[in-house]
Amino acid sequence: MTQRVVIADAGPLIALASIGAFHLLRHLFGRRRLEAKHLGLALIGSAAVIGLAKTEGLIPAARPLLDQMVAAGYFIGPSVVSAVLCELGE
Questions:
Q1: Exposed site from 24, 50, 59, 65, fewest CB < 10 Å?
Q2: Does the pTM of the predicted model rise above 0.85?
Q3: How far apart are CA 24 and CA 62, in angstroms?
């Protein structure tokens, strides 16, 4: 049986959003994603973390954060954004 660990911490996303610094996400977390995959860890993306933050009541809406990230040059596929927003009813 393969053990899976999922860590979803919206704190960094919320902090970077509050200072308009989404461009730092790739620099801060890009390499760790490759390391996690190499270790066989399950991952979720930034859009899903934002969705979880909305679901848990940590943010009032996901759309503004996702829009800010895309505007700042952080790539999130349009179909991913649409799926997260649809799931949240936004």
A1: 24
A2: no
A3: 19
Q: Where are the domains positioned within the chain? A: 11-88
DSSP 9-75: --HHHHHHHHTT-TTHHHHHHHHHHHHHHHTT-----HHHHHHHHHHTTSSS-SHHHHHHHHHTT--
pLDDT digits (tens, 9 = 90+) for 64-73: 999 988 887 8
Q: Which of 55, 78, 62 is nearest to 14 (CA)?
A: 62
Span 33-50, pLDDT tens digits: 677 677 776 667 788 888
